[in-house]
Design brief:
With about 280 residues, the protein is an alpha+beta fold. It is about 65% helix and about 15% strand. It has two domains: about 190 residues, Helix Hairpins (Orthogonal Bundle); about 90 residues, FlgT, C-terminal domain (Thrombin, subunit H), CATH 2.40.10. Strands 1-2-5-4-3-6 form a six-stranded antiparallel β-barrel. Helix 1 packs antiparallel against helix 2.
């Protein structure tokens, strides 16, 4: 075999090794994306189950409060009926007392008997007045309880609607994340197959920083190569206040020891502001 044949055999061996390396890198990278996607789907299922449980609990509380309101309405009606009867008895007693007074004036010979009967009627009248006052107080207490239950019912209805809106938002966010995950996997597969220089490194999980400056879709962040960030890394951009919110991703294009510049991608990239958080992962690998 001549020198040219040996050179061709060596070149063929080198290309075979490079091809095998690229195949291994593409398989490993896609497996990592699948694991991350599976974990993200499980976490989203847990959040949806929690929101569904909150919605169910709020609905049950609303139903219980409605039942209590109906019960109190029945008690209030019974108390009002008893009050009306007591009022009727009081009026009857007052009429009897007046008749006795008239009879007492006309029949002075039976003054002792009339006096005793008058005293008895007065005692009954005072008892009826006391009973009427107690019934009025009971009705007032029932009205206060009904007002409180109405307020609690409104509160639980608000919680129920908030739980439904939360579930709707989570479902929408899950669909968005699923679409973006598919896009990122496609981009990663395309980049891995076209770049002969090997895979892009994955940043350490503890990478944390903030957005320092924005210029259109380009952003400068406060972490660089000293923290393990490299060109091609994809970091997550999110916000913790006033409420936790995932915004988009940033693909690193240039790195210095203490800073990095990347391109923002995602439906909420236009909402990114300086001081928003940047991390390698939110849910964990």
């Amino acid at each position: 075999m001549g020198a040219l044949g040996k050179i061709l055999v060596f070149v063929n061996l080198v290309f075979s090794l490079l091809t095998a390396g690229l195949i291994i890198v593409v398989f490993t990278t896609r497996s990592n994306w699948k694991d991350a996607y599976d974990k993200q789907s499980k976490n989203m299922a847990i959040v949806q189950a929690s929101a569904q449980a909150s919605e169910t609990a709020a609905s049950e509380q609303v139903r219980l409060k409605d039942s209590e309101v109906q019960k109190l309405k029945g008690e209030r009606k019974s108390a009002e009926d008893a009050r009306a009867k007591t009022q009727e008895d009081l009026q009857k007693a007052q009429a009897d007392l007046k008749a006795l007074n008239d009879s007492f004036v006309k029949n002075t010979t039976n003054s002792d008997a009339f006096t005793q009967e008058l005293t008895r009627r007065k005692t009954e009248l005072e008892a009826l007045q006391k009973l009427l006052g107690e019934r009025d107080q009971r009705i007032s207490d029932i009205d206060l309880q009904m007002a409180k239950l109405r307020d609690e019912k409104v509160s639980y209805e608000i919680q129920y609607k908030a739980a439904k809106e939360k579930i709707s938002g989570l479902m929408s966010q899950n669909e968005t994340l699923t679409r973006e995950n598919a896009t990122l996997k496609a981009q990663l597969g395309s980049t891995s197959s076209q770049t002969p220089g090997g895979p892009k490194t994955v940043p350490p999980e503890d990478v944390r920083g903030t957005v320092k400056q924005l210029n259109g879709d380009m952003a400068t962040i406060s972490v660089g190569s000293d923290a393990g960030v490299n060109v091609g890394n994809v970091l997550q951009v999110y916000r913790l206040r006033p409420q936790p919110e995932w915004l988009c991703t940033i693909t690193i294009l240039a790195v210095t020891p203490n800073e990095a510049v990347g391109r923002l991608a995602g439906p909420k990239r236009i909402q990114v502001k300086p001081q928003d958080e940047v991390a390698a992962t939110i849910l964990g690998r």
